[in-house]
Specification:
Elements: E1 10-11, H1 19-31, E2 35-36, H2 40-44, E3 49-52, H3 59-67, E4 75-78, H4 84-96, E5 100-106, E6 119-122, H5 126-135, E7 141-145, H6 150-179, H7 182-192, H8 198-230, H9 235-248, H10 258-268
Parallel strand pairs: 1-2, 3-4, 4-5, 6-7
Antiparallel strand pairs: 5-6
Protein name: 6-phosphogluconate dehydrogenase
Domain Phosphogluconate dehydrogenase NAD-binding putative C-terminal: 176-246
InterPro entries: 6-PGluconate_DH-like_C_sf (IPR008927), 6PGD_dom2 (IPR013328), 6PGDH_NADP-bd (IPR006115), HIBADH-related_NP60_sf (IPR051265), NAD(P)-bd_dom_sf (IPR036291), Pgluconate_DH_NAD-bd_C (IPR015814)
């Protein structure tokens, strides 16, 4: 939805297959003036450019399904947040079917940037991919290598810090609240870093986990694959996966303040494991 506005695009979403979600998803397509089709085959047959935008756990399956119908020479731009290994498996399916696979990493939240979001592009067809993405309105595209996995490796390794900080925020602030020293801990963090007050940063990070923890856990599982492949260790990434999943699994709406967010999480999480109670 972040990318389709203003494009002569058609698309397939699995929510179209289920009566409970079909009407709302059709309304989304109508809002963007994009054509909704009922199968992946209809979405990709005869198309010169395909953007794959699914959850991390479905990225390889989406590529394998698309390979059954992809036109010879069509560009398959894989913008999913997955490990280089996962992208190489997806590329194999697409290339064997005659398509051209492009490894694309999305390097910032897509809202509100839309097609202004920074993209890194890699693989043997990176140049063609970059030119095509630019032609359809992406304004910040950079080639980072001719090897599939080069772009995704940058995204995955960056996620160790970005998503790891969110998980560390939860662990730190929940403990500080339980010990009754939250204000002192926040003040000590503010004293060492002035870019953004930690009360504000903490509220933001926890809100991100409540809303997106399930999806981010799947992405972090791909980060673990990346680090294991490098042999550099993945203990924190594994822990981050579980913390993101536990908070995302609560299925609650985010609150307006740090006080109310911490109260909500403390009431719903198991103190010992940080799992949903």
């Amino acid at each position: 939805m972040a990318f389709a506005g203003g494009l002569a695009a058609s698309g397939y979403d699995r929510e179209l297959a289920y009566p409970a979600t079909r009407a709302a998803k059709l309304a989304d397509f109508a809002t963007l003036h994009a054509e909704a089709v009922m199968t992946n085959r209809e979405a990709v047959e005869g198309r010169a450019v395909i953007l794959s935008l699914v959850t991390a756990d479905q990225a390889r399956a989406a590529a394998e399904e698309t390979a059954r119908s992809i036109a010879p020479g069509a560009l398959f731009c894989d913008l999913n947040s997955v490990a280089p290994e996962t992208k190489r498996h997806a590329a194999q399916a697409i290339e064997q079917a005659g398509g051209r696979y492009v490894d694309v990493a999305v390097m910032a939240p897509v809202h509100p940037l839309g097609r202004k979001v920074p993209l890194l592009v890699a693989g043997p067809h990176a140049e063609a991919g970059a030119e095509t993405l630019t032609a359809i309105g992406f304004t910040n595209v950079r080639i980072v290598g001719d090897t599939i996995g080069a772009a995704s490796a940058i995204k995955m390794i960056r996620s160790v810090m970005v998503k790891g900080l969110e998980a560390l925020t939860a662990e730190c602030l929940l403990a500080a609240e339980a010990a009754g020293v939250r204000d002192e801990v926040l003040a000590s963090l503010d004293a060492s870093e002035r870019a953004r007050p930690w009360a504000e940063r903490g509220a933001y990070n926890l809100e991100r986990m409540i809303v997106h923890g399930g999806r981010r856990a799947e992405e972090m599982a791909e980060v673990v694959k990346t680090l294991d492949g490098l042999g550099t260790g993945s203990a924190m990434a594994r822990a981050t996966t579980e913390r993101q999943r536990a908070i995302g699994a609560l299925g609650v709406a985010p609150t307006d303040t740090l006080d109310s967010t911490l109260a909500l999480l403390n009431a719903r999480l198991s103190p010992a494991l940080g799992c949903a109670a």
